[in-house]
Design brief:
The protein has helices at residues 17-28, 36-48, 59-63, 78-88, 91-105, 117-121, 135-146, 155-175, 197-217; strands at residues 6-10, 32-34, 110-114, 127-132, 188-191. It is an alpha/beta fold. The two termini are 17 Å apart. It has a single domain, classed as 3-Layer(aba) Sandwich (Rossmann fold). Bound molecules: cytidine-5'-diphosphate (2 copies). The site of one cytidine-5'-diphosphate (CDP) has 14 residues, from α1, α7 and α9.
């Protein structure tokens, strides 16, 4: 049987992983899974249950997660950013969520974005991309996503606040013992600082075509 085309996209917060993954999936006719939403859904459940995600095991919350839970519209708020990162450091939570992620793409392929897709979830992915940008560029993008008030007088100060939060979360994600944020050895890096989302998509498509072409002829 032909091996399913799996594309793993990892990188720090607000680098543009989701934007790229969604567009790449549409261009290639593959399903897309934003794996960060799994950890966000678990973090959300901890908050709703009044449990501290820094100290309380989140196994029960993780076990109950279904793909339909990822549709909730209250997952992309700052308190959930933090809660998601805290539950994501729990080994048991990660172990519970592995099958959902693998089953999503194992038969028909797919595009998944997160922190450990190329290192842990799909170490044999056909293509691995590590998408990065400077903290400043990422903070500006996230600010514009959340509150696109380009005229706000306190814009610079607010972006600096977002930058500090992103940096704290990246540091936590990169320094945790289980499945830390890092590029797989065979990942292709895309530094998106000076690139538009269109340019990033073009570059990713070029890498995918090259890799799948190599596989056909190799
Ligand atoms: O969208 P953003 O990059 O800000 O975050 P996200 O991808 O939604 O991920 C939220 C949090 O979930 C991250 O800070 C990580 O702690 C965790 N996460 C993870 O540990 N592993 C993944 N594959 C995806 C997310
Ligand atoms: O998924 P992740 O947290 O890595 O990032 P995202 O949610 O895709 O957010 C990236 C934001 O930056 C979106 O508003 C994009 O339109 C914008 N952006 C991008 O994704 N890529 C660029 N090269 C430039 C901007």
């Amino acid at each position: 049987m032909k091996k399913a085309l799996v594309i793993a996209i990892d990188g720090p917060a607000a680098a543009g992983k989701g934007t790229l993954a969604r567009r790449l999936a549409a261009a290639l006719g593959l399903p897309y899974l934003d794996t960060g939403l799994l950890y966000r859904a678990v973090g959300r459940r901890m908050i709703d249950a009044g449990l501290d995600p820094a100290t309380h095991p989140a196994d029960d919350q993780a076990r109950g997660i279904r793909l339909a839970d990822l549709e909730r519209d209250d997952l992309r708020v700052p308190e959930v950013d933090r809660a998601a990162s805290l539950v994501a450091a729990q080994q048991a939570v990660r172990a519970i969520l592995v099958d959902t992620q693998r089953n999503f793409a194992i038969a028909g392929g797919g595009v998944l974005d997160g922190r450990d897709i190329g290192t842990v979830i799909f170490p044999d992915a056909t293509v691995k991309l590590f998408v990065t940008a400077s903290t400043q560029a990422r903070a500006r993008r996230r600010w514009e996503q959340m509150a696109p008030d380009l005229e706000a007088p306190d814009r610079a100060a607010r972006i600096a606040e977002v930058a500090a939060q992103l940096q704290a979360r990246d540091d936590a994600d990169a320094s945790r013992a289980v499945a830390p944020l890092r590029a797989a050895d065979d990942a292709v890096w895309i530094d998106t600082d000076d690139m538009t989302a269109d340019e990033v998509l073009d570059e990713a498509l070029r890498i995918v075509r090259q890799r799948t072409g190599d596989l056909k002829t190799g």
